[in-house]
Amino acid sequence: MTASSRSREYHAPRRVAQAAATRAAIEAAAGRLFARHGYAATTVAAIAEEAGVTPKSVYAVADKPGLLLLAVERADEGEGDAVRAVLRGYPLQRAFEEAAAAEPAVREAWRRHERRRRAELKRLVRTRAEAGRLRPGLTVGRATDTLWALVTWHTAALLVEQRGWSRAKLGEWFDQLVETLLAGE
C-alpha cells in the first residue's frame, strides 16, 4: 500500500468541541425542563427548542428516558451527598420518580438511586452511632429507615412550595432533624 492510497485519519477538534457543547446544551435543557414541567409534560421537541437544536440532534444524544437519566447523572455529579442533592434538586427528583412509574427503562435506575440515598443516610447514622451520638435505644436500622422516609423530594417540595422555605432553610431543617431525631436533643 502506498502512502497516497492510505486513508488519512480524520481529526477535527473544533467539530468535537462543538458536538460536546451541543450535547451539554441538550442535557442542560432536558434537566431544566424535566425539573420545571415534570417528565410527562416535557417533550423532545421542547427540549430541542430550549437547547436551540433540532429534535433529530436531541435523539442523537438519547431518547426521552435516556435524557432524564443523563440529567439526573449530571445533577448528581456536582453533589457529593445524595441526600443534599435530593433536597436541593427535588424538582428533578420528582420527575425521576414520575418517569420510573411510567418507563421500565428508568425504573431500575430509580431503585438504584433510592438504595444509594438510603446507604448514604445509613453511613451518616453509623458515623453518629460510632461517636456515641445516637439516642439510647435507637438502632442504626430504625434511624436510617426514619430518615430515609422523611428526607425525600416529597418533603422538600412541601416545605419549599407549600410553606415557602428557601433551599438554605431546607438545609438547616435537615441538620436540625438529624440532631433532634438521632440524638434526641
From TrEMBL:
Annotated HTH tetR-type domain residues: 20-80
Protein name: HTH tetR-type domain-containing protein
Top-level taxon of origin: Bacteria
One Pfam match: TetR_N
Keywords noted in UniProt: DNA-binding, Transcription, Transcription regulation
Gene3D superfamilies xref list: Homeodomain-like (1.10.10.60), Tetracycline Repressor, domain 2 (1.10.357.10)
DNA-binding region: 43-62
InterPro entries in the record: Homeodomain-like_sf (IPR009057), HTH_TetR (IPR001647), Tet_transcr_reg_TetR-rel_C_sf (IPR036271)
